[in-house]
Structure formats: structure tokens, C-alpha cells
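Q: Got one fold?
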Amino acid sequence: MSNQTCMSALCKCSFGTSSSTYMALPIHQTLTMNLPASNIQDHVPFLNILPFGECFTISNPMVAAATAAKLGILTPMPCIPATTSPWIIGEPTILLSNMPTLSNTSILMCEWGGVITISMAGEETVMVP
């Protein structure tokens, strides 16, 4: 079983240099530990998904340009999340606003190839079946 994800969860991108805090808005009118709960549709860059420090994948156009300017030396650039698809659920779950809830086993894909995972759900008492 996994944990419900809510505001203040910690996320990590496989191509980012630091962790980021997940932002859940109170749009689903459901709280867990007095924090807004979220579902798999909560994946909007800079609204739900904040930057992960610097990005170091060459598939990111900014990183590719900076690396080319330094004659092939990998040059990380500021992370700009490009999350256009919903979270991929990790296991069967309950519904929140007619969509599966977001759990700590869910993953999110960035357009630049990064895999975003939830390292701490923000909620440790509500288990998602």
C-alpha cells in the first residue's frame, strides 16, 4: 500500500540537481492532515511541479545550447519542468474528483526525459489501497 500525496510532498527528478516541494491546491475540497490532497491531474509546471534546481540532460534544448557553447562540456541550466501528461499511477487507488488519487508510488515524465518521483508523500497516516 502507498501513501496519499498532498501539499508539501517532496519530489525528485532524475535529471535535476535538487529536490522540490510539491504544491497541491485546495481545488478537490479534500484535506489530508489539514493539507490539500491531490490527484493524477495535478501536474502543471510552476503550479504543482516546481523546478528541481538545475537540469543536466542534453535533451533539454537550453542544456544542449549551453553545452554546445562550451564546446561539448556538459553545462547544466535552470530547471524548467515540462510536464504535459498526467502522473502515472503506481498501483490501484481510490478516486478524488473522479480521477485516481496521487500516491507516493506514482511517477511523472518530463518532456526532456526526466522521471519525477515522490520521495516523501507529505501524508504518512492515510494509506491508499
In short: Helices lie at 61-69. The chain has a mean pLDDT of 91. The chain has one domain: 1-116. The CA atoms of residues 39 and 55 lie 26 Å apart.
